[in-house]
Amino acid sequence: MNETQYIRDTPTKIRKRQGAVLMLQGTASDVGKSIVTTALCRIFLQDGYRTAPYKSQNMALNSYVTLDGKEIGRAQGVQAEACGIAATTDMNPILMKPIKDMFSQIVIHGVPHMQMSAMDYRTQFLPKAKEIVLDALDRLRESYDIVVMEGAGSPAEINLKDRDIVNMNLAGWADSPVILVADIDRGGVFASIVGTLELLEPHEAARVKGFIINKFRGDLALLQPGLDWLEERTGLPVLGVLPYIQDMRIEAEDSVVLDELQYQRQEKRDLDIVVIRYPRISNFTDVETLRWEPDVVVRFVQSVDELGTPDVIILPGTKDTISDLGFLQDRGLADAILRQTQQRDVQLVGICGGYQMLGEQLSDPHAVEGSVREAKGLGLLPIRTSFLKNKRTVRVKGELLPEHPLRFVTSDTEVDFTITAYEIHMGVTEWSAVSDGSGHRPLFSIEADGTDSLKAIEDIQPHIEGIATSDGRIWGSYLHGLFDNDVFRRSWLNGIRIKRGLIPIPETFKAEERKFAEFDRVADIVRNHVDMKKIYEIIGYAH
Question: Could you list the active site residues?
Answer without folding.
Answer: 352, 480
